[in-house]
Amino acid sequence: MINFRYHVVSLTAVFLALAVGLVLGTAALNGTVQNQLNEQVSGLRNSNGQLRDQVEELQTRAASQDEFVRQIAPGLLAGTLTGRSVLVVSGPTADNDDRDQVVKMLALAGAKPTGQVRLRKDFTDPNKDDALQDLAARVTPASVTTLPNNGVGVETSSALLANVLLADPAKITTANRTTILQAYESLGVLDLDGEVTATPATAVVMLTGAPETGTGSADRNKAFTEIVKQFDTVAGQMVLAGTTAAGAGNPVAAVRDDGTLAKAISTVDGVSLAEGQVATAMALAEQFTGRVGHYGTGSGASARIPTLRS
């Protein structure tokens, strides 16, 4: 007869076997999962390495292309703007390096600089609009009679500055010009980079970066587009160049999408690249022949650079 001790021994053996099997099975499973994870990690590392190599290759190509464009720029631009007086205006988001490179391209084309003006963020700040309107009312000379009469400070001040910097010298005396520019500089809405000459420009290159984002950005972007419109009203020739044509409220896109402005103002996107900087100078030269174009790789561009014409 099987006694109680026999049952205990048998049950113990069964549980021991189960425990051993569980341990062995878990170890085997863990080994399989670990191997799979190791393989996945290794694959991701290889993939990341390949992507890194591709990025480095693209960066090298872009740098080489930029260098190539800079080398051929003198031949492309020589004499195309000889004797033309050009003002460079930088918007609040424009990059200083982009401006400096564009100025170099204009110099290669033979342009005669009349000065550089940087508009600060306060110029497009709705909270500064009343101050802009008040200042314009105080410093506008009697000879200037074409300013907007709508009570919008950014438009009135933009129109006044356009008349000061671009209009017929007979309308604005040197003393008036100095007084007005210093007044806006004192208000903290613009900076004068270097000396602004006594003779106004006949053409303007306006630079911008990506559209502003965040609180109040829609109003600021709209305000900058209004600045562009007011300068176009006075300028004989005008090019608006930006880093991109994308993004809500983008001034470059706004001009391209406006049936009237698109026929008067040439635009360039990609001004951070040498190709865009050369295209900006070429587009301005094209303006002096009565042609308007939109260049770059963004939406609304008809070609990457203007067509060379004899």
Form type: globular
Portion of residues in beta strands equals 5-15%
Instruction: Name the CATH class of the largest domain.
Output: Alpha Beta
Q: How is the CATH topology of the largest domain named?
A: Rossmann fold
Q: Supply the number of helical segments.
A: 8
What this model shows, in words?
This is Copper transport outer membrane protein, MctB. It holds the Pfam family MctB. Residues 34-61 form a coiled coil. The structure is a single chain. The protein has 310 residues and is of the alpha/beta class. The protein folds into two domains: 1-77; 78-295, Rossmann fold. It has eight helices and seven strands; from the N terminus they run αβαβαααββαβαβαβ. It has helices at 4-77, 96-108, 129-139, 153-166, 174-187, 217-234, 251-257, 274-287, and strands at residues 85-90, 112-119, 190-193, 203-208, 237-242, 266-269, 294-295. Strands 3-2-1-4-5-6-7 form a seven-stranded mixed beta sheet, with helices on both faces. Helix 3 (129-139) crosses helix 4 (153-166) and helix 3 packs antiparallel against helix 5. The chain is globular and about 120 Å long. The N and C termini lie far apart (119 Å).
Brief descriptors of the model:
310 residues, 53% helix, Rossmann fold
Brief write-up:
Helices cover 53% and strands 12% of the residues.
Task: List the topology elements.
Blueprint: H1 4-77, E1 85-90, H2 96-108, E2 112-119, H3 129-139, H4 153-166, H5 174-187, E3 190-193, E4 203-208, H6 217-234, E5 237-242, H7 251-257, E6 266-269, H8 274-287, E7 294-295
Parallel strand pairs: 1-2, 1-4, 4-5, 5-6, 6-7
Antiparallel strand pairs: 2-3
